[in-house]
Amino acid sequence: MRIIMLGPPGAGKGTQAVKLAERLKVPHISTGDILRRNVAKKTKLGQHAQKYMAAGKLVPDDVVIEMTAKRLKEPDAKRGFILDGFPRNLAQATALDGLAEIDAVVNLFLDPEDLVKRSTGRWVCPNCDAVYHVLTNPPKRRGVCDKCGSAIIQREDDKEEVVRTRIRTYDDQTAPLVAHYKGKGLLRDVYASGHIAEVQHRILEVLRL
Length: 209
Ligand code: AP5
Hints:
- By secondary structure, the protein is of the alpha/beta class.
- 46% of the residues lie in helices and 14% in strands.
- BIS(adenosine)-5'-pentaphosphate (AP5) binds next to helix 1, helix 2, helix 3, helix 6 and strand 6.
């Protein structure tokens, strides 16, 4: 299956995408993770993207579309994929139409203040991209990734003022995609409140898995 995870920052797209990808045995493709790896390695792409990410703005379309097109052409994506963080505006959605046929768009929605709490409490593993939350999803050992044992960190863009800018960026530029995919009959709305397992159950239900 080829699935898009749509939703504002902190809704739980990454957390749910990992579980869905494991279940369907397809890759989880997160444009945010790919960009962060490039920033960490100080590649040309990372150096270009960093200032936009730190400010809570979208990285320019030409850069992100080329990067995603390249990733979708890799052999593991032939069987399907869970696309997390792309597309983020109508130009990216139009580009994606030319790259792959999408089966469903899972639209996670949540109260804005809950989005802020989720993002400001998030810790991530810079080595394997695992995601934790200080209150709702802590690692077994404080500060240490359960999966690979690396020291976990907070994302630069999870400071409250940047989180609020990211939510505004989502409302202005990405939210119009809800109507876009509804018009195509692909949208599956899922309320993202409650335990991670409960949200997962709702997603499996709307996808009939
Ligand atoms: P990206 O990394 O994609 O960030 P985002 O879309 O803002 O989404 P997040 O990663 O913040 O949240 P999420 O919904 O995945 O939530 P998560 O599962 O982590 O993008 C970062 C930046 O890169 C962008 O701002 C932009 O600059 C750039 N970028 C990326 N793609 C781009 C594109 N296509 N075009 C242009 N620029 C692009 O969960 C959040 C927290 O909540 C975690 O702590 C988690 O443990 C916890 N949690 C999850 N589910 C639950 C639950 N049910 N109950 C309690 N806690 C939960």
